[in-house]
Every structure is written in C-alpha cells, then in structure tokens.
Specification:
Helix 3 crosses helix 4. By secondary structure, the chain is of the alpha/beta class. Strands 1, 2, 3, 4, 5, 6 and 7 form a seven-stranded mixed sheet that branches. It is built from six helices and seven strands, in the order E-H-E-H-E-E-H-E-E-H-E-H-H. The longest helix has 17 residues, at 42-58. It has helices at 12-20, 42-58, 86-96, 133-141, 169-173, 177-185; strands at residues 4-7, 26-27, 64-75, 78-80, 100-111, 117-128, 162-166. It has one domain (4-185): Maf protein (Alpha-Beta Complex), CATH 3.90.950. The protein is elongated, with a radius of gyration of 17 Å. It is 31% helix and 26% strand.
Length: 192
C-alpha cells in the first residue's frame, strides 16, 4: 500500500487495537465539537461524528486513508457519552445496573485522494450485573470511568460489572476490528 494510514483519534484504546492487528499508522487527533444531537438515533449520531472526524483530519494530510470512529452507550432511551463529572459517572453506572444496554460505534474511512468515503456502524449489547452505589463510587475513585462512554471500561476493572455481551467485544472497547478490517479491504488495505 502506498498510501499512509491515519487514525483520527487520540484514544489509547483505539491506538492499541490498531497496533494489535499489526497496522502501521499515524495518529492525528480530530478536533471537532461532539455536540449532542437530540434528533438523531444513536447509530446515526456515531456515524455523523466519525465522518466529521475523518473530514477534519483529511484536511491536514495527503495521500492517506483516514479512519475515524465514535462510540456511545445507549440505555433507557438515553445517549451516554463520556461523563463530565463524578456525579454523571455515578448516574450512568446506576442507570446501567442490572440492565441490558447497547453500545454503538460508528466507523468512517476516507481516501484523501479519491474522496471515497465508506461509513458503517456496529451495535453490541451488554448486560450489567446489579451494582451498589458503594461499588459504583469506589470504581469512580479509580479514575477509570471518566474518559469512557457509559462510564466503564470492559477491558479494565469495569469488566467485573459485565454479566454478558452479545456482539463484538472490540466494539464495546471502542473500535470494532472485524468491521473496520472489512471496510479497509474496500480501500485495498489488508492485515495479511
């Protein structure tokens, strides 16, 4: 491949996942306003934000394939992004307690030369065990939930709250690898 691969994200989890499958890439964080758009469904919202990220970064690079992603948690008809305060994190964790919720990740891939853009979304379901307010507060004190959609990290200490998942584990982490690889293949970018 003669085009450079660029990840439009500073997410340590997305960076680690792309490294895990062996891609050589550059990280250029997208600087966009991730405003909450009330009139969009969660799957449409994550796709919209992923597209905004690749477009933002595509203006800074040439001869590149740019990857953008956005993840959110959807529970009880509420979109849960990253908590802004410990109180928001507590409210999110207690909302998720003993219930199923959905995790949506939008992925956008853009070729900066041809302007070919492909966008898709992955949906997974997660069942939380019942958690007490004390457990939630103690988890928040670790700092782990504060930069995670839905205020938990399935790949971290938050794993102890997860009773069951349906769908792609990596989607819940923040980058659905199987779907991403299928999209990249449409740009002649291959893992093997």
């Amino acid at each position: 491949m003669d085009k450079k691969l660029v990840l439009a994200s500073s997410s340590p989890r997305r960076i680690e996942l792309l490294k895990q499958i062996g891609f050589d890439f550059e990280v250029i964080p997208a600087h966009i306003e991730e405003e909450k758009v009330i009139n969009l469904n969660p799957d449409e919202l994550v796709k919209k934000i992923a597209v905004e990220k690749v477009i933002s970064v595509s203006r800074k690079v040439r001869n590149s394939i740019v990857i953008g992603a956005d993840t959110l948690v959807y529970a009880e008809n509420k979109i849960l992004g990253k908590p802004g305060t410990e109180k928001e994190a507590l409210d999110m964790l207690l909302l998720l307690s003993n219930k199923w919720h959905k995790v949506y990740s939008g992925i956008a891939v853009l070729d900066t030369e041809t302007q070919k853009l492909i966008v898709d979304v992955e949906e997974s379901s997660v069942k939380f065990k019942g958690i007490s307010e004390k457990e939630a507060r103690n988890y928040i004190q670790t700092g782990e939930p504060m930069d995670k959609a839905g205020a938990y990290a399935i790949q971290g200490r938050g794993a102890v709250f997860i009773e069951r998942i349906e769908g792609c584990y990596y989607n819940i982490v923040g980058l659905p690898l199987f779907k991403l690889v299928k999209l990249l293949e449409q740009f002649n970018v291959y893992v093997f």
